[in-house]
Amino acid sequence: MTLEAIFNIDPYNWDSILTAIFCGAIIGLERQLRGKPVGIRTSSLIVLGTYLFLATAFMLEGDIVDPSRVVGQVITGIGFLGAGVMLAKDGAVVGVTSAATIWVLAAVGVMISTDNNLNAIRISVLVVMILYGVDMLENHTKAFSNGVHNRVRNRRRSKQTNGE
């Protein structure tokens, strides 16, 4: 058995698989470094899994095969994963950003399955810029620190000073 035969994954391709892992890793790295749910492993697996489901669906043949139905089912399954990271804490729902990130990760996997690897990388970088950039604005600008985030932070500070 040759080395080429061992690493042959036809009809899938390594470029798409590595792109999926890379896109998931750069988004997951931002989440993991900030102590948020859905880190590098989970993010990479979501993008890779979405790519594999869709790439497989595109290969199926027949009169009743419709890859758009697979996309719909992936979105439904991803919604279930997203719901799992959200919870109510101190009167506020937390984890919504992580849930939205999971949704975008699946969309990146769909992009890769349609041979839009470079655009998938671009979108992944844009997602990191949004996640990091808005957080910086919230930390450094009074207008962005109003609302739920401010109320949750104030409750935490209050509990810490009261010894709770």
Q: How much helix is in the residues?
A: over 70%
Compressed to H and E, one letter per element, the order equals HHHHEEHHH
Q: How many beta-strand segments? A: 2
Strand order of the largest sheet: 1-2
Low-confidence stretches: none
Give average pLDDT, whole number.
Answer: 84
Strand fraction equals under 5%
Rg, Å, rounded: 19 Å
- SS element count, helices: 7
Helices and strands: which structural class? mainly alpha
Major pleated sheet: 2 strands, antiparallel
In whole angstroms, the N-to-C terminal distance is 64 Å
Number of domains: 1
What are its keywords?
164 residues, 2 strands
Which helices and strands occur, and which strands form pairs?
Elements: H1 3-6, H2 14-33, H3 40-59, H4 67-85, E1 87-89, E2 92-94, H5 96-113, H6 117-140, H7 148-162
Antiparallel strand pairs: 1-2
Helix pairs in contact: 2-3, 2-5, 2-6, 3-4, 3-5, 4-5, 5-6
Structural overview:
With 164 residues, the protein is mostly helical. It has one domain (9-162). It has helices spanning 3-6, 14-33, 40-59, 67-85, 96-113, 117-140, 148-162, and strands at 87-89, 92-94. Strands 1-2 form a two-stranded antiparallel sheet. A hairpin with a 2-residue loop joins strand 1 and strand 2 (92-94). Helix 2 (14-33) packs antiparallel against helix 5 (96-113). The N and C termini lie far apart (64 Å).
Please provide a brief summary of the model.
This protein has 164 residues and is mainly alpha-helical. It contains 7 helices and 2 strands, in the order H-H-H-H-E-E-H-H-H. A hairpin with a 2-residue loop joins strand 1 and strand 2.
